[in-house]
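From the thread on structure requests for the teaching lab: each student submitted one protein with a one-line request. Submission from student K.M.:

"Model diguanylate cyclase from Glacieibacterium arshaanense, tokens only."
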Amino acid sequence: MEQSPAATTGATTADDRLAGALGHPQLLLFDRLRDLLVQTGLPPEPDVYDLFWRYLGGLEHAISRALDEALAAGPIDMAAVKQLRRDHCGESDASAIAQLVETAREQTDRLSQHLRDGQADLAIYGRAIADGDAALNGARAPATAGELAALIQPLGAATTVMVAANRRMETELEAAAAETAALRDQLRKAENAAVTDALTGLLNRRGLIEALSNAQMHAADAQQDLSVAMVDIDHFKNINDQRGHALGDEVLRFVGQHLALGVGETGTVGRLGGEEFVAFLPGMKLDAAMATIDRLRGALAGQIIRRTADGASMGRITFSAGVSINHPDDTPDSVIARADSALYTAKRLGRDRVIPDRN
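Reply posted by the TA:
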């Protein structure tokens, strides 16, 4: 979260000079990433590489903090990597997605077979009608009632078979429609899960970035203001360490819902990771957004939070926040980074306050 002097003053560091010699600033990350792979003993697989790249890039502070804590606690394995990605990268359960794909494939195969069976039944019926037509219009048409009955009998049998086939097809198509509706519902749930933080029910990082990107495009089209707040629960590590992670989770849920209710239907709140949340407020200027977030800060600080299970006091919970205004050339990461810089100032000045970014 803290910016180095070089980042704030423009001074040139040894890393900057080395990166320049390599030809591109980010090439230096490759050496650091390789060292981290050697240090952890993890395989250079895409999931590991992507997580470490985000960590070393330094812009995703929740990932940086979580991975720092994981590395400090001891060796990490692929299970820990997957958990970090689920918590901070909006990663879906690959096995669940694979199962949905397999279900869709099986349903498609069954429907294709039903259609092939229906085509075969229709072809048989068509041949029976053609044969009857040829007999009726041939050189020797039926001359007696017996001959006519003999001609009509196979047509009646074919019609009976076709009616039964049609009924079977209707039943199979109704079943296929029900399966499709169920699969569509499962896919919708999977899509929601991919962008939802399982702990708080808010948007996760992936969903948050997508929603903020859409809000930025809408703000540009409508020529509207868009303010973004970075919120961090004060002394959250102490809550986890002293009261346990279960209580820490309860605090995260409470603060998340407090923010979501406070910004109303026009605002959006998501959990960036750890104890960090992002709220964005479309159509709101910086000062108005500052006032909104500060009102929520004051309301939270003025409460005694009680544990859901037994009503025991958890004391007072406060947060610090930084607020930035979206610029036309901003990306989600850049506008969040400025809000994060203001948040760092709020922390440095004593916490439990809201600071604007004036850049």
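TA comment: Residues 107 and 176 are 7 Å apart (CA to CA). Residues 5-88 form one domain.
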